[in-house]
Amino acid sequence: MPQKQLTPSYANIKVPNTSPAHRYTQHKIRAIRIKGEIRYLHSKKQQLNLQIYHLHISLANVWNNTWPHIQHMIEEKICRETKTKYKTLDKKLKKLTQAMKPQEPHTFYPRVINNTNISFTNSEKALLQKV
């Protein structure tokens, strides 16, 4: 599956732009936040799967012969609900990817404009253009 380069809103953390490492840090924060969220959701899913497994075993013991029919009906209902969930998620992703338009490169104006009759050397121009 190709990466869509979309960042969830909960992963956006503002870091003050006071150092040159700002961009790198901002990227790493998003990645760490998303990885943490995935770990949390995975552990939550594991717990739910364990509970479902124990419930499945106990219900299979109680309902003996009718359990396969009951299980089939449950699976059909889950399949229908997951299809609707995935449709809405696909719509959201499609909407997000369409909303992302490539930005035009920003044109910067020169820092120093010489409006005088004085001509500067290259070293003087370089010194004036530094911040």
Main attributes of the structure:
131 residues, mainly alpha
What does the model show?
The mean pLDDT is 84. The protein has a domain at 1-78. It is mainly α and 131 residues long. It is elongated and about 100 Å long. The protein has three helices and no strands. It has helices at 22-63, 67-99, 122-129.
User: What is the residue-averaged pLDDT?
Assistant: 84
Q: Any idea what the radius of gyration is?
A: 29 Å
Q: What gross morphology would you assign? A: elongated
| Helix-strand makeup class | mainly alpha
Distance between the termini: 44 Å
- Give the strand content: under 5%
Q: Catalogue the unreliable spans.
A: none
> Helix and strand string, N-terminal first?
HHH
- The overall strand count is 0
Helix fraction by DSSP (H/I, runs of at least 4): 55-70%
Number of helices: 3
Largest sheet: none
